[in-house]
Amino acid sequence: MKIPSPPTQWLxxxxxxxxxxxxxxxxxxARAEDGYxxxxxxxxxxxxxxxxxxxxxxxxxxVEGSSxxxxxxxDELSRGLxxxxxxxxxxxxxxxxxxxxxxxxxxxSPLVASLDLTAELGRAGEEGFVLRAMPVRGRRxxxxxxxxxxxxxxxxxxxxxxxxxxxxxxxxxxxNAPRLRHRVxxxxxxxxxxxxxxxxxxSLWDWHKLPDYVDPRYTDYARANAxxxxxxxVITSVNAxxxxxxxxxxxxxxxxxxxxxxxxVRVYLTxxxxxxxxxxxxxxxxxxxPQVAAWWRRKADxxxxxxxxxxxxxxKANSEGQPGPQDYKRSHADGANVLADALAPHGGIVMWRAFxxxxxxxxxxxxxxxxxxxxxxxxxxxxVLVQVKNGAIDFQPREPFHPLFGAMPxxxxxxxxxxxxxxxxxxxxxxxxxxLFEEALGADTHxxxxxxxxxxxxxxSLHGYAHTGMAGVANVGTDRNWCGxxxxxxxxxxxxxxxxxxxxxxGAIAExxxxxxxxxxxxxxxxxxxxxxxxxxAAVDYMTPLGLHHLMARGHHYGPGPWxxxxxxxxxxxxxxxxxxxxxxxxxxxASGSNAVAQYFPPVAERFANLATVGDDxxxxxxxxxxxxxxxxxxxxxxxLLYRYQAGVDxxxxxxxxxxxxxxxxxxxxxxxxxxxxxxxEQEARWWRDASVLYFQTFSKRPIPAGYEPPAHDLEYYMxxxxxxxxxx
Amino acid sequence: MKIPSPPTQWLxxxxxxxxxxxxxxxxxxARAEDGYxxxxxxxxxxxxxxxxxxxxxxxxxxVEGSSxxxxxxxDELSRGLxxxxxxxxxxxxxxxxxxxxxxxxxxxSPLVASLDLTAELGRAGEEGFVLRAMPVRGRRxxxxxxxxxxxxxxxxxxxxxxxxxxxxxxxxxxxNAPRLRHRVxxxxxxxxxxxxxxxxxxSLWDWHKLPDYVDPRYTDYARANAxxxxxxxVITSVNAxxxxxxxxxxxxxxxxxxxxxxxxVRVYLTxxxxxxxxxxxxxxxxxxxPQVAAWWRRKADxxxxxxxxxxxxxxKANSEGQPGPQDYKRSHADGANVLADALAPHGGIVMWRAFxxxxxxxxxxxxxxxxxxxxxxxxxxxxVLVQVKNGAIDFQPREPFHPLFGAMPxxxxxxxxxxxxxxxxxxxxxxxxxxLFEEALGADTHxxxxxxxxxxxxxxSLHGYAHTGMAGVANVGTDRNWCGxxxxxxxxxxxxxxxxxxxxxxGAIAExxxxxxxxxxxxxxxxxxxxxxxxxxAAVDYMTPLGLHHLMARGHHYGPGPWxxxxxxxxxxxxxxxxxxxxxxxxxxxASGSNAVAQYFPPVAERFANLATVGDDxxxxxxxxxxxxxxxxxxxxxxxLLYRYQAGVDxxxxxxxxxxxxxxxxxxxxxxxxxxxxxxxEQEARWWRDASVLYFQTFSKRPIPAGYEPPAHDLEYYMxxxxxxxxxx
Lengths: 729, 729
Description:
By secondary structure, chain A is an alpha/beta fold.
């Protein structure tokens, strides 16, 4: 999957490889499909008629321009078309025949400049592209045009995706541009290569060997991101280490930036707020201290001297033990602004996280970020974005949208999703997250009346934000298949696609991914897609049905822990969230309780506050409900809980059946991995169900109905399970 | 590189692959050589005439027998021959034509049983094999015969090695059997997947997903070991964790054992001596307590119920903070014997490490293992081996052999080499270790007069040991190329080959490895081999010339730290070892000093004790020598030190030149990796040289001679270097 950048080197290698291929290939040991190629496999189009159609549509490749990005584009098109069409596509320098694929910008390509694409390019913007079947110098051609090189690259990936998913290309005419400007992965990677909440091995960044040795895998990482339009990578953890800002480590970051640059991916770092003290030798990190401001300015200058297109800084401050401006009685805005001022001359941004909650504040954790940040609306510098998790607690299987969305019209809010499955079974549970992302993006804040969706908040259309963005906490690591599981890569894919176009549907994204990752055969695509689309609800049901949340085992969050109590903070326990008692279960967040509902705009607040309108999904999130409460299903709450837990287990079993039916239709290594993981998931869905039901039964005192699969062990057994050395630190 | 075990599955996959190949291969994106295939690449024999010779010598494959090991053998031969000969070799069931490769045991194969190989098989023993060109039922054939299935497997790998290295096979007639019985890798792998002194990523064992998911890479690991004859793998660290002996974790170990078994590789575990307290609930771990003995017996029974061919336990006790029998005022023999008694009914062994030295003992660390263990000779059970590092300090670039070798005629001593380069530059320094291993094995203990080499001690021929063995601290991890560097894999290879046959020369091993790993072309083989053979002396020269030792940076041991002083233990400092002063440098271990020399047999002791006979290599190991001491070279000691440091740097530069001359002759990815690492090595050789020379100059007060490359910085610069987050914990 690797491309060397200089074409001469590529040609030399190609020649060598061709030689090897000629003698070896008919008999070389075939390598298994191990997931490394992700959705960029470029296998020959299986439909012979369609392959011939494509072959006649693309008879040659003409990419004008020689920038690293355009060279990468040409290489990718060449590689992709060669694979898909089953024959090398010649590179030509003049449009002397029909069927050329012409790609470039008006600056790089006289041919593109000669075409009448002014209107389309006007709509393409900085990163978008035009894809059109149209005559070029009188010859039939397909044109990929853009205003900047990276747009051409994105267009090339889009075109290859159309072929990989077997779409018609004869009458292509589209303009496609990202709706969000900053589309970034957040790597929670430490300098010792451990990854917080990482379930795919360890950090891709081999710091020890950087900057001298540049692993070819870094290129494949950037390339995979570029194929989705992801244009930024925060390479260090939000629980930041000041060492990453020292000269020795900045050189390592710069080496990564050099690899990523041709692919349009900018490097970002996390800033430890106390860095001026820890590595700067200053007595304070007070953001209003002029020495501190000067230190950050010098640090920014130093970074940009090494990385001219450095993206900026991501900061977690005054949260979960991290230092921050409040250590000096300054506000989050004071903290963000001192960094923003340092970065502004270079065009960098600050992404300041709103994930804050204090153990010293007695109020519902749900309310704290809103309470802290809303008063600061309009006080941040123009190059600050406040990065808000999709929900107010923490990446639960299902959460209502964060009340900050819509509440800060003068401060660009960007979305933070978690791609890695911290609360969703790690890599061994198949949970396709696009429905979760879609649900959050589609939620209606009513900030400016009906239709004020979260998507319209973060894409800037609701409030006219100058900056827009979406961050995803990455799930990639050293595992050969990148994400720890073949299906977990669908979540990386979905995040990238939604960051480009938040309106894409989770079904359409699943279908794209399946077609590229496995095959286009409808008898495979449909069942796999259905399995994916149902998987998130399955996880909600077997883990935290009906609005229950944060019931996972302490610390590592692997497996059930509804009994978790005690410890340093109440809001790190399960009891804080489920509040099960003899009278009922659930967190009253209405006016009779914490009144967190009041942070939502009235129509939303009213809906959530009313037991009749809140709906099953958020019932116990907002209400403490009696065990015998009658649900819309006709069941009591207790019966419904059990019904949901069982439904989750049953859904996993259906996923297993779906997969088994595909035996022999898929390559062995990936097939067997999925099968093994589904077995683990079914075991653990039962573990979740049985542990939770037995535990809640100690409060409900109600029997387990007949016909319900009885728990395999007693409650003590489940409470004694103590998983050790689980990954993700 | 993966083989599925059941042939039917293999055939099904093959059919699928063949289909894919047919449509895809001429145009599929070629994958780079990334080192994953190690020395088992099986590329077509490049010499066309020789390929034809081989083709006519092997026209078909006939492996009789259906055990998992024989199926693995047949698959390996099929894969290897198909690759090497450039055409599939048909599997036949009857010897109806000339040119068959016939493989099996007399029990598995009526054909093999029909041959007159009694004498040869008598010499082949339990694990050896016979390889002979001979008629079978009147047809020309090549026969691989053995007494046990695993011998056939080893013979198959040997045969494939002959072809890969382009050796003649027409008149094959050899019997080959391992000289050592236990040939084991020691993985210092923790349960959180960190690897102590590991420089190739993280642990191969994905504990969290075991036993349900079995990574295909485990098979390739076992297969690579089998190709060398390595028959054991201690999968957990010597700094042991009792958790690994709990039922949950034993199930994980059992899953690995199931994968390794067909390849003849037994699983071993490390035992934490305090496990009876930590996981057994006993009040003591006193080895003479009957409850403790009973606990270990039950634990052994439990292990063997899961892993019937479990190899045994490796123990580090009362060393560097580990618990042990001395906590109860019992001897190492008491400790080893309680475990040995538990394992004996099942045929398991105990490997008890002699690497002990106490901070409470004022005596030279060099002497402590001998002082502790020699008095215990003859007291250990029959199934105990005492595992002794090659030298008395700790895996230094060069050490004299350990004085225990030859000193315990009634206790089997096994060798412990370190394959991972803890003190040798980690993965980024090219240091081929076979010369170090060879030097240790060839050292003459004089235990029973001249010729009593260390090799004869450990192969049992000197003392008639019932058990024999060699352990290598593994250097493999999750890195795609297994060892962190392509060339580091030569050390895994060399260890395995020497464990099978300690008399193999380091040059012959290097040549085998280069031919299989890169190519057979002499114009490539010779320079690469020379580069490898000189690399260990280069490292000695730029790190610790003339018998200096243990001068590495504190803790992680990366880079120079001759100034390391203070801390919890004197013998964890550099000052303890080099003793530089105004008058001279070196550790006086003669009668006027610690008298460690007295632990060697008289001819050796006399040679080491005498300044005239000790030789340059061990000069400062055994003597404190004046700066103006005149060396055999005619230079003073000070001048010689500088000369050696410079020679080390120069040698690395020659390695760089050698490699550069091969540009374009090797595949790109591996070529570039080596080139980048040699650049790092050259930088760090200068770092070692300059830091060491400047530091020692503070004692010698002598100038740096003209013509010598001056240090780039001052001493303070080097002393302030503080490498952080280096791998290997």
